[in-house]
From TrEMBL:
Residues 87-234 form the Penicillin-binding protein dimerisation domain. The chain crosses the membrane at residues 45-63. Keywords: Membrane, Transferase, Transmembrane, Transmembrane helix. Residues 278-580 form the Penicillin-binding protein transpeptidase domain. This is Peptidoglycan glycosyltransferase. InterPro entries: Beta-lactam/transpept, Beta-lactam/transpept-like, PBP_dimer, PBP_dimer_sf, PCN-bd_Tpept. It comes from Tractidigestivibacter scatoligenes.
Length: 606
C-alpha cells in the first residue's frame, strides 16, 4: 500500500490538466459554442454597447476640454462674478453769475444678497423705519431668488449710515452699499422748467437736463467683482474696474434772481387777471441770451408724481398762440423796409374793412372814417388801419416774403426740447381773408419765442440772433449764429420810434418804467377754441418790449392766456413789474433823457 501511494505521487501532474483541457475543448466545439473568440452573443452585445458609450464620453470630454473650453470658462466666470455700474458724476449747471442751479451730490445705493438674508422681516422693518413706506414694500427684493437685488437707490449718505449701523447692531447680514450720486437743485423749484429733471438712472428727462444730456452725463464705468457661492463679493478677490468719466459743467445765460421774480410775478398775474395760464421770457436782444423763461402752471420738483407734463415745459417755446396786435410791428416794418410808407404817412381809415368775407373792426369808438398816421395806427392798435396797409399798400407777396424773413413759421434754433414751428399759411395758400387777418396777428399761431426773436431783430438794428440758454460747456464758450440782415438799421430805428410812442401814449402806457425809454407793443389776440372758432370773452393778452430803446440791453415778453382782460390792463402792468426787476438786477442805467420825440405828425401819404 505504501509503495502504491508513492507510485501515485510519482505520476506526472500534467495528466490531470490535460484531461481538463480536453473536456473544455470538447465543450467548446459543440454546436452553439462561442467559437474562437471565447464570447457568447450576449456578451458581445454588452461589449459593443460599452465601447460605444466609452467613445461618446471620450468625444464629449475632448469637445469640452479642447473645443468648448472658452465658452465654459466664460459661463463659469459669469456665474461667479457680478457687474456693478459705476455712475459718472453729472456735470454741474451754473447761472450766468456763478450760482449753482443743479449739481450731483454723493449718496448711497442700497442692494442686498437675498441668499444671505436669514431674517427678511427684521431687515425690512429697519429699512422701512429709515426709508419710509411699510416693511412689506421691501420684502420682494429681500426674498427674490437671486444673489443681487436693488433695495433703494440714491439714499442720503447719513440715512444709509444709520441703516448700516442698525442692521449691524441687530446682527442682520446681506445688505450692502454702493457709492452713488443724485441730482439736487439748490434753488428748489425755481427755473425747473428750464433746467428739467433727471430720472433715477441719471439721465435727463426734460428741459436742459435732457437737451444737453450727452454733455452733462459723461460715461459710466463698471466694476466686475469675484463672488463666492452665495454671490457675495470675496474679500481680496479679483476685480476689474473701468473708471467712470464725469460729465461737463454748463454755464447758462439764466439770471436766477430775474427768473425767480418772473415766476413770482406771472403766477400772481394769472390769479389777478383770471387767466388760464401765463408765460414770460426775458432776453438780451443783441445776443439772444435768455435771462429768464417760465410758464404756468409751474413745476414742483418736490411733487413730480402730481405734476402734469404741461408744467414741465416752456409754453413760449413748445406751444403756439395767435400773436394778436404784437404782429402789427412786423407788418409796419415790412412796409417801411420796402419804402412804401413811414411813421408819418397818413391814410384814411374806415370804421371797418373786409378781409375776404370777414369784416375787420376796431375796439375804439369813432363816428366814421378817420385820417391816421402809421404811428397812430400802432398807438391806437387799429386793426382796420393795419389791415388796410397790408391789403392796399404792401400786397400779399411782399407781406409773405417779409413774414418769412422775420422767421415766422420757422424754428428759431433755441436750445430747448420740443420747439414748435407754428401754423403759418404760405403765400401759395393764401385765401381772400389771409392777408387782411394776418396783418394784425390773426389767422396764424406761433410759439412766442418767434415773436421774441422778431422783436429782437428790431432792437438789434435788423440783425437776427439765436435765442439760447447755453453760454459755455466744459469751460469753453459757445458761439451762437446770427442771421442775415432782415431789415435795415434805418427801418429798425423808425419802427423803434413808433414803438416808443405806443408805450408813452398808447396801449402800453401802463407798462412804462419811470426813468427808462421802452419800445414795445401790446397784443390782445382772441383765444382759439378747441373745436374751432374763438372763445367769447377770452383773450391772449401780451406785451413785448425792450429797454433802453436807444441801446437795448433787455427785452421782456409777457403773455396771459385765456384772460377776460385786455392787454393794456393786464399784460402791461405785469410787464412793468418784470421789466423794473430786470433793469435793476442787470444794472441798466436809466435813460439820460426820458423825454421822447416820438409824437411827430405830418401829412405825407404814400
Amino acid at each position: 500500500m505504501r509503495q502504491s501511494r508513492q507510485g501515485r505521487r510519482g505520476m506526472p501532474e500534467a495528466s490531470y490538466d490535460e484531461a481538463s483541457r480536453a473536456r473544455y475543448r470538447a465543450r467548446a466545439s459543440r454546436p452553439g459554442g462561442s467559437g474562437p473568440g471565447g464570447f457568447d452573443s450576449g456578451t458581445r452585445v454588452i461589449f459593443i454597447i460599452l465601447m460605444v458609450a466609452f467613445a461618446i464620453v471620450a468625444g464629449r470630454l475632448v469637445w469640452l476640454q479642447v473645443i468648448d473650453s472658452s465658452s465654459l470658462s466664460e459661463a463659469a466666470e459669469q456665474h461667479r462674478t457680478n457687474v456693478i455700474t459705476l455712475h459718472a458724476k453729472r456735470g454741474t449747471i451754473y447761472d450766468r453769475n456763478g450760482n449753482v442751479l443743479a449739481m450731483s451730490v454723493d449718496c448711497k445705493t442700497i442692494y442686498c444678497n437675498p441668499k444671505e438674508i436669514t431674517d427678511p422681516s427684521g431687515v425690512a422693518k429697519i429699512l422701512a423705519a429709515n426709508l419710509g413706506g411699510s416693511a412689506s414694500d421691501y420684502t420682494s427684493a429681500l426674498t427674490t431668488d437671486s444673489t443681487f437685488a436693488y433695495v433703494e437707490r440714491q439714499v442720503d449718505t447719513d440715512v444709509a449710515d444709520t441703516i448700516k449701523q442698525q442692521l449691524s447692531d441687530a446682527n442682520l447680514k446681506g445688505v450692502y452699499y454702493l457709492d452713488d450720486t443724485k441730482r439736487v437743485y439748490p434753488y428748489g423749484d425755481v427755473a425747473s422748467q428750464v433746467l428739467g429733471v433727471v430720472g433715477s438712472d441719471g439721465d435727463g428727462l426734460t428741459g436742459l437736463e435732457y437737451y444737453y444730456n450727452d454733455v452733462l452725463s459723461g460715461t459710466d464705468g463698471q466694476m466686475i467683482v469675484e463672488t463666492g457661492l452665495t454671490g457675495t463679493p470675496i474679500a481680496g478677490g479679483t476685480s476689474q474696474v473701468t473708471e467712470a468719466k464725469n460729465g461737463q459743467d454748463l454755464v447758462l445765460s439764466i439770471d436766477i434772481d430775474i427768473q425767480e421774480k418772473a415766476e413770482e410775478v406771472i403766477s400772481k398775474a394769472v390769479g389777478d387777471y383770471e387767466a388760464d395760464s401765463g408765460s414770460v421770457m426775458v432776453t438780451n436782444p443783441k445776443t439772444g441770451e435768455i435771462y429768464a423763461a417760465c410758464s404756468t402752471p409751474l413745476a414742483k420738483l418736490s411733487d413730480l408724481a402730481n405734476t402734469s407734463s404741461d408744467a414741465l415745459t416752456l409754453k413760449p417755446v413748445t406751444a403756439s398762440y395767435e400773436p394778436g396786435s404784437m404782429f402789427k410791428i412786423l407788418t409796419v416794418a415790412i412796409g417801411v423796409e420796402n419804402g412804401l410808407f413811414n411813421a408819418d404817412s397818413i391814410y384814411n381809415v374806415p370804421m371797418q374793412i373786409l378781409a375776404g368775407d370777414d369784416w375787420v373792426t376796431d375796439d375804439d369808438v369813432r363816428s366814421g372814417a378817420e385820417d391816421m398816421t402809421v404811428r397812430t395806427m400802432l398807438v391806437r392798435s387799429s386793426n382796420v388801419g393795419v389791415s388796410l396797409l397790408a391789403q392796399e399798400v404792401i400786397g400779399a407777396q411782399r407781406f409773405a416774403e417779409g413774414v418769412d424773413k422775420f422767421g415766422i413759421g420757422h424754428t428759431t434754433g433755441i436750445d430747448y426740447p420740443g420747439e414748435a414751428t407754428g401754423i403759418v399759411t404760405s403765400y401759395e395758400n393764401y385765401t381772400g381773408a389771409t392777408l387782411g387777418a394776418m396783418a394784425f396777428g390773426q389767422a396764424l399761431a406761433v410759439p412766442m419765442v418767434q415773436i421774441v426773436r422778431a422783436f429782437g431783430i428790431v432792437a438789434n438794428d435788423g440783425i437776427p440772433t439765436t435765442p439760447h440758454f447755453l453760454i459755455s460747456k466744459g469751460g469753453e464758450g459757445v458761439d451762437w449764429p446770427t442771421g442775415d440782415q432782415v431789415i435795415s438799421k434805418d427801418t429798425a430805428d423808425e419802427v423803434t420810434d413808433m414803438m416808443i410812442s405806443v408805450m408813452t401814449d398808447g396801449t402800453g402806457k401802463r407798462g412804462q418804467v419811470d426813468g427808462y425809454t421802452i419800445a414795445g407793443k401790446t397784443g390782445t389776440g382772441e383765444q382759439a377754441g378747441e373745436s374751432g372758432g374763438y372763445q367769447a370773452g377770452k383773450y391772449v393778452s401780451s406785451l413785448c418790449g425792450f429797454a433802453n430803446a436807444e441801446d437795448p440791453q433787455v427785452l421782456v415778453y409777457v403773455g396771459l392766456n385765456g384772460t377776460p382782460h385786455l392787454a393794456l390792463s393786464s399784460a402791461a402792468p405785469t410787464f412793468k413789474e418784470i421789466m423794473e426787476a430786470a433793469v435793476t438786477d442787470l444794472g441798466i442805467s436809466p435813460d439820460a433823457s426820458t423825454t421822447t420825440t416820438s409824437t411827430k405828425s405830418t401829412s405825407t401819404t404814400n
